[in-house]
């Protein structure tokens, strides 16, 4: 089994755990306090995972804009050609500020919509050192997003892309490191 097969399986498992195990939001403040006590309808208008929900792939690898929070996550413990350990980690988060129907058209970027905020984190561990970097983006302007077929997750030049042969390609760059 290749390292990328392990990464793919790990990513799918983590997605399944996330979708099956999300906790309920408080009706008065919502996740991370992003719903306001004066606007309880906002917190209650996001879809919540519930018992009996089923995952369907590849569709569930893609975005779910009717949910408040989701993320895509890959981690791998690899070895260099000379056998030294190398660890990588990448996560991209989407935090909705207001719900959107999944197939509804995205507002044009010229309106500067703020329906979601994005954050990506990448890390590399090698030779006893740990390197990391983060990126932030405003949602619905094309700077960050997710597409299903083929799978693409991006924030600026950081990208996870499904290749024609079914493998995934991850591209992340920090100061003085990349993978």
Shape: globular
Percent in strands: 35-45%
Order of helices and strands: HHEEEEEEEEEE
> How much helix is in the residues?
10-25%
Whole-number average pLDDT? 79
Broad structural category? mainly beta
Separate helix tally: 2
Distance between the termini: 20 Å
Task: Round the Cα radius of gyration to an integer and report it.
Answer: 18 Å
How many strand units? 10
In terms of per-residue confidence, which ranges show pLDDT below 50 for 5 or more consecutive residues?
A: 12-28, 33-38
Largest sheet: 4 strands, antiparallel
- Widest sheet: strand ordering: 1-2-3-4
Give the topology:
Elements: H1 3-21, H2 40-44, E1 69-79, E2 85-96, E3 116-126, E4 129-138, E5 144-147, E6 152-155, E7 158-162, E8 168-171, E9 173-174, E10 177-178
What would you note in describing this structure?
This protein is mainly beta. Helices cover 13% and strands 36% of the residues. It has a four-stranded antiparallel sheet. Strands 5-6-7-8 form a four-stranded antiparallel sheet, with no helix packed on it. β7 (158-162) and β8 (168-171) form a beta hairpin. The chain is globular. Mean pLDDT is 79; it is low at 12-28 and 33-38.
List its salient traits.
179 residues; mainly beta; 4-stranded antiparallel sheet; 2 helices; 13% helix
Tell me briefly what this model is:
The protein has 179 residues and is mainly β. It has helices at 3-21, 40-44; strands at 69-79, 85-96, 116-126, 129-138, 144-147, 152-155, 158-162, 168-171, 173-174, 177-178.
